[in-house]
Batch of 2 targets.
Target 1
Amino acid sequence: MDTIERIKALSDAFGPSGFEDDVAALVRSELEEYETSIDHMTNVRCEKEPGSEKPRVMLDAHMDEVGVIVQAIKPNGTLRFLPLGGWSAVSFPSSSFQIRTRNGNTVPGVVAIKPPHFMKKDERNKPSDVSDMVIDIGVTSREEAEALGIGIGSPGVPDITCRYDEERGLFYGKAFDDRIGVACAIDTLKRLKNEDLPCNVQGSFSVQEEVGERGVRCNAEALKPDVMICFEGCPADDTFSEDYMIQAALGKGPMLRHMDVSMITNWRFQKLALDTAREKGIPVQESVRSGGGTNGAMVNQTYGVPAIVIGVPVRYIHSSNCFCRLDDYENAVKLAVELCKLLDNQTVSKL
Ligand SMILES: [Zn+2]
């Protein structure tokens, strides 16, 4: 696939936390030039030079997306559900979902919202709890839902098909957190495949990040990286922050995060990335975040590995409908490629 087709396919792929099989299959087919492996958690990994003595640079992106899971079916056939990953309850009502059936099909559903005609005065502006919400799949009884193959544990994701506007270089779709990062990691590995590098690059496509960075531990345990570059789809803030506080705008380049609540980035590695971007004329944005968390933090904390996060800004992350831009993606890949050319033994030992 070409870059645009690959990003669209990754965005469309069904893969809430714990159900990443389709994404893993896509990653493996797109990385045919590498020998990839998959574990029982569905983590995918690969390595450019297995057994080499060069420093190991792990390029990680998580394959899962935020979704939902059916908790119970009500007698009228509507579905009680729990969020998979960090949703804000206010973004659910009226959102469309596709729910996967037992036999692998999907059925469309919508988070039911009572028509205003039936709402009492105090209901109209009151936010509701997820526990009060249901997904309606258009059936009239529990039996009908079950006959479709829906049951306890059926997973779901937003029902959106990715669109690309060539003129504006803009993607609209779901799951750019972190499929745009997955696309970055695939592309970086492809561009480096035939380069003579001072380091051994490794691909880490991990599962279950959105529920607590679970999969990346297995990948790090297996790959034993010396350095990590974590690709993320990161929350864009340019439509609701004051100008001076905007740190992740669309079209201004990937975001390099100095800090979030999970990690204070190794400043030496961060400086190397910022200096490299400046030297190569790659636009980047810098941020200090009061929220957030990444796989970088998990590997940094567990194995003491210096990690940076290269984030492609995504508007309206952790909801159904998102935007991101091709130029930000391109610049993220360019920066990672340049960094991998620099990460020799001496440089890595000084991080
Ligand atoms: Zn993410």
Target 2
Amino acid sequence: MGTASASANPVRHTSAHVVTVHNHRFLVDCGEGCQMSLQQCGIPFSWIDNILISHLHGDHLFGIFGLLSTMAMQGRTAPLYIYAPAGFKVMLDFFYDQFADGVKYDINFRPLEMKGKEQIIQMRSLTVSAFPLNHRVPTFGFLFEEKAPLRNIRKELIERDNLTLTEIGALKRGEDVRRGRKKLKAEDYTYIPYIPRRLAYCCDTAPFKQLPEWIAGADLVYHDSTYADDYEDHARKYCHSTSRMAAQTAKDAGARQLILGHFSARYKDLQPMLAQARELFPDTYLAEEQHKYEIPLNRMN
Ligand SMILES: [Zn+2]
Ligand SMILES: [Zn+2]
């Protein structure tokens, strides 16, 4: 929904992203204009039950109160969960005091205060972890991890060995099955249909030692790329990253793909920034507004 850094401009909105895992949709950051972008993308607000705010800089946050108000005007009753740094509580209290007359839904605030990587959301099909980043204020990154799917049965073996429904159920859960003295091993009769996918969100941040470990093996990394090489000094001064720094982190993490975002408005042409990242990490792409990126399934059969 938004790929710009500090200030919105006619071409780019400030940070906001929708992450869809199976039927769950998460709003990650909520910069100004997020409501409009969601509507332009045909994403109903009722689909969003969890909002994750990385840090309390306006470019990641200024859209949330408008969104909360519109949700109320639309008659929302389903509870909403907001994960944000602890300081967000004061802002939410102010919103409740001043603007919450028509709010008929519960807003459940979960403060992010961890010093390392911690799981914050656990659902049937996925988990979400948060971890601290290296920015000027308390900032958190997020790792979305799909859970391992149920194993698939090798169909040709059902008939060969006359497997019963009970046996098939157990094998699919990964349990071995006893038949007298013989043991049917789940790993022989089943296979994992696909490898669970992982998405890491790292914005805003300067590089730091633990980051590649915390996002190791991610299929897709969305990373702060505020500057190109020419403003490396700014990246260091303001605790952001250049595209090359983002690429180094993705490389060290053994990631599969990298998406650069949070671009400074000073860059009209982002191609040099992309080229610099690709020198280190070829599978790098520029984030585009209102564009959908899909992590392909890595099927095992
Ligand atoms: Zn920012
Ligand atoms: Zn920031």
